[in-house]
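Thread title: Can someone regenerate the structure for this chain?

I was given the following input by a collaborator and told the matching structure tokens would be attached. They weren't. Posting the sequence so someone can regenerate them.
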Amino acid sequence: MIPLLRSFVLVVALLTASLVPALQAQEERVLRDILVDSLRSVYDIREGQVPAVLEEEDVPIDQLAAPAPFGPGEHLEYKVKVGIFNAGNGYMSVLNIEEHEGSPVYRINLGIKGGIGPARVNDMYQTWFDVTTLQTWRYIRDIDEVGYQSYRHWEFYPEIMRWERIDFDRGGDLGSALPLDEIAFIYFIRTLPLEVGKTYTLNRYFKEEGNPVKVTVLRRDQRETEGVVYNTIVVSPEIQTDGLFGQGGKGEIHFTDDERRIPVYVKSDIPNFPGSLTLHLQSITEGHPLNPLSRVAAKEGRASRGQTEASGSDLH
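Best answer:
Regenerated them for you:
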């Protein structure tokens, strides 16, 4: 959808030029808004969507699933800040397993809601991420910020190397046969070895102009949040376009330095947003990996952390 401010300017310009083109533009805008509203009604999960608390037996093992430290039921809650100011809350969730064209996919979402004074934000990112190939099939970005609203719905067709905007009659060439969006990239990075000092160069972004994506592992560190000190691995991703980790930004993700690779702290410079946006981990609901070896690693890790907590250490 065209941002509302630009739509308003466009309509005013058309009205001053000719009544008929203006009416046509208004009709197209109304039809587009109806389409977007109908898409939102199918996929919108803004209000309080939290995955069900799943027991291990509720999540079957998938022998074909790619190794991954996350799984259905994982829900991470964050405090959102702009600079030093508390600005709301956010979360990242692996909601469930759905099916896309016969393939099982993770349905994952990231939501940010809050703001400072009149500068409000209610953003939602959703991705449908293949369980076996770790690629995106569908990506929805729904941004509602002060002075800027944008709803975009992409579908990916790697068999013909095309992406299509469902909310707007537009398409383009895929940048990869195994495309990833910004949110899927965070989860994909969690599957990498993350060797300190190494830069992973990945031609996986779904738009050609966004490649290559560079993921630089900066250092090991510690990050304290909500009274808990986490050992972390600090990563700087850079996508050659705008978005959460756009070129020229100072994005960082601090992952737990254990088998989970949970994002403890996320920093991003976002266009049309005052200052750096940061996410600080508040709580963890762990999910259940689908890959059998990943699930074994998760169970062993939980047992190990349980022993550490019992010994009174504050390192998790």
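Residues 1-43 form one domain.
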